[in-house]
């Protein structure tokens, strides 16, 4: 009876927020047509932040917005895996893959250390590291499941990613022209350095089809690293928790183990289920068993779902808090400069 009541209450609680997110996505798609440099995802997250900071959100919208920000985003991340074919990524060649791995790995490892030096909250620093080094908002959401972070950390990281990623759309083509980079060099640089897939696409689209293809493929090579990075973070967090266990805690550990055995509770997984789903979709796409009609239909659907989810996430961005959290903005700038510099040096030497 309780389950039936909850089922009947679900539409009343969630549909208003879902409807608002759907309207925001429709608006974002229309605006993006007239302003191709701005992806629907960027427009949607900006719209969500605008709604929140202008006080236009009624509390009854919150359940639906939280649903799209969490559940819909997880579905979008799983579908993102269907855009990645490992044989296609390998066509980039060893030098480009080395640039991607070095820029991503160093940025992901160094950013939390810089965050500690700048006295940025550890959760925020880790999410900024994931967003800058891997794939923007998708990485932030995936890492949030494995990091000791809260909604304020997510909002800060999203704000930072949006600001610097949008700036890169304009800055990279201008710098590439000034530096005399070839189209392939610009494509590799954009794919190895820019935060969001959509932002990389915007850089590539403004520079020609050849640049776009290289840039997207290089970016997808970074996205592949999402699952192992999440797994590594989870294992480190579990190992750190074990190391911090005080002496004499073995009795508590045994008690907790007995409690888990009685209740059926288990240790948190190495990676969230939706990240495992993402990895499974990469494998499926790489095996080439899906018809092209399906794989070509996936990117637009994923883009719509990501825009809806980012609108929901954007409604948690408080610009006043972001302005006060100047250290997080500074960390995001340093981290962005780090991945941009490493990848540019690699491009100059190897491409």
From TrEMBL:
Main location class: membrane
Keywords associated with the record: Cell membrane, Membrane, Transmembrane, Transmembrane helix
Transmembrane listed as a keyword: yes
Domain of life: Bacteria
InterPro entries assigned: UPF0324_pro
Protein's cellular compartments: Cell membrane
Membrane topology (UniProt): Multi-pass membrane protein
Pfam families listed in its UniProt record: Cons_hypoth698
TM ranges: 12-31, 37-56, 126-144, 156-181, 270-291, 297-317, 329-350
GO annotation, cellular component aspect: plasma membrane
Stated family: Belongs to the UPF0324 family.
PANTHER family in alphabetical order: INNER MEMBRANE PROTEIN YEIH-RELATED, UPF0324 INNER MEMBRANE PROTEIN YEIH
Name listed for the protein in its UniProt record: Putative integral membrane protein (TIGR00698 family)
Organism from which the protein derives: Nonomuraea endophytica
């Amino acid at each position: 009876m309780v389950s039936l009541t909850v089922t009947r209450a679900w539409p009343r609680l969630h549909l208003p927020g879902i409807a608002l997110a759907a309207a925001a996505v429709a608006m974002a798609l229309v605006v993006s047509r007239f302003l191709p440099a701005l992806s629907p995802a960027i427009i949607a997250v900006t719209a969500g932040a605008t709604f929140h900071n202008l006080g236009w959100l009624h509390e009854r919208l919150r359940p639906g917005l939280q649903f799209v920000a969490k559940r819909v985003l997880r579905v979008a991340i799983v579908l993102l895996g269907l855009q990645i074919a490992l044989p296609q990524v390998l066509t980039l060649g060893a030098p480009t893959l080395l640039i991607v791995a070095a820029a991503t790995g160093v940025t992901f490892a160094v950013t939390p250390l810089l965050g500690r030096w700048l006295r940025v909250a550890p959760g925020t620093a880790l999410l900024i590291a994931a967003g800058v080094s891997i794939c923007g908002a998708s990485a932030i959401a995936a890492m949030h499941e494995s990091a000791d972070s809260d909604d304020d950390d997510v909002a800060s990281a999203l704000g930072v990613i949006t600001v610097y990623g949008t700036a890169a759309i304009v800055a990279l083509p201008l710098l590439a022209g000034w530096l005399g980079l070839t189209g392939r060099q610009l494509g590799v640089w954009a794919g190895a350095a820019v935060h969001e897939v959509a932002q990389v696409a915007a850089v590539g689209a403004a520079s020609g089809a050849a640049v776009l293809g290289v840039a997207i493929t290089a970016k997808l090579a970074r996205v592949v690293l999402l699952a192992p990075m999440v797994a590594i973070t989870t294992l480190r967090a579990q190992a750190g928790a074990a190391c911090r266990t005080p002496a004499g805690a073995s009795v508590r550990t045994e008690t907790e183990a007995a409690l888990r055995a009685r209740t059926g509770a288990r240790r948190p997984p190495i990676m969230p289920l939706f990240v495992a789903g993402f990895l499974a979709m990469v494998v499926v796409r790489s095996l080439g068993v899906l018809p092209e009609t399906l794989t070509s239909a996936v990117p637009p659907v994923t883009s719509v779902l990501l825009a809806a989810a980012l609108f929901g996430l954007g409604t948690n961005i408080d610009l006043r808090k972001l302005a006060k959290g100047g250290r997080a903005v500074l960390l995001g700038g340093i981290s962005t400069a780090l991945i941009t510099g490493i990848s540019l040096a690699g491009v100059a030497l190897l491409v």
